Amino acid sequence: MEEGRRLQRIGRTSKDPVRLRRAIVVLMSAQGQPVKNITSLLRVGEDYARDVIHAFNERGFDALDPKWSGGRPKTISDKVRERICLIARTSPADWGIAAFSTWSLTKLAEHLVKRRVVTAVSRETLRRILHEGKVCWQTTTTWKASTDPAFIAKMHRVLELYDAPPADGRVVCVDEFGPLNLQPRKGKAWRPARSPRRLRATYNRYDGVMHMLAALDLATGKLYYRIRKRKREFLDLLKALRARWPGEKLYVVLDNFSPHKHPNVRAWAADNQVELVFLPTYGSWLNWIEAEFAALRYFALNGTDHRSHAEQNAAIGAYIRWHNARAEPKTNFAPDSPIRTWTQYPAKAA
């Protein structure tokens, strides 16, 4: 009786289809059902049913558990798989192949067979080998080397301001965003399968372009901006920031755009408790506001087709209001990045 209740419990709760089927076979047999009835109900062979019943009589409930054998053994050894991953990371030019500059799965499979690394391999098997070896398809990136001899010193100054803002003032990151054209912009959106949203491909610039000058306050995480027809109204932005936080010294992190270094800007900053902290040459990625610009472009502009600057400016303004309502202080800038350990500028990209 106890075995019967346990079999019934397995039949109600088991999520393993093999264990469930075997339990039902044993339970039906215990209830006096002939093998033909069991096979008819469960769609299994008579030999299978008899083997399950005999195994249960010999080993008890252990006979219900499936004994997975692990599948067919690998036909491609681990050593060969490692070599395949190494070859995939090379360029066809390294093998004297001038016809193409990168591997496809088909071309790589043909090359492996030609080099007798394997006798044969399908694209799916090759894809799985590369996936298991953590070799994936990636877009090539670029690296622009800086010629600034004071790169490390300037970088450490910026990181110091990010990590420990001075008690006597406020750190603000400033940059220009644009040009803001009136044009259809590619983007991504949730759509029915094989039914992408389509935008026009032709446009004109009869209404000109606009530029956004923006500032990121690290103490609050809020963005402050103005949209103008020219990028050279930088001094007006500084005066607006000065008026917003009177009595505090401003540490303004900015790039080497020529209007930022104009004598009038430098003189005004020196007279109004504003320290201009210039980034290293080709070091704009150190400006924290760049991350906010990337989010603005992704959420407010990509996938749009504004027909007027007023419409586009309104979309930007709506996003920034949404952002500021949820803003939090900016802390922990790239805490695990290799730049934290740099003592000299790297000769090439890591």
UniProtKB/TrEMBL annotation:
GO MF term list: nucleic acid binding
A Pfam family the protein falls into: DDE_3
Highest taxon of source: Bacteria
Domain Tc1-like transposase DDE: 170-304
InterPro entries noted in UniProt: Homeodomain-like_sf, RNaseH-like_sf, RNaseH_sf, Tc1-like_DDE_dom, Transpos_IS630-like
Protein name: IS630 family transposase
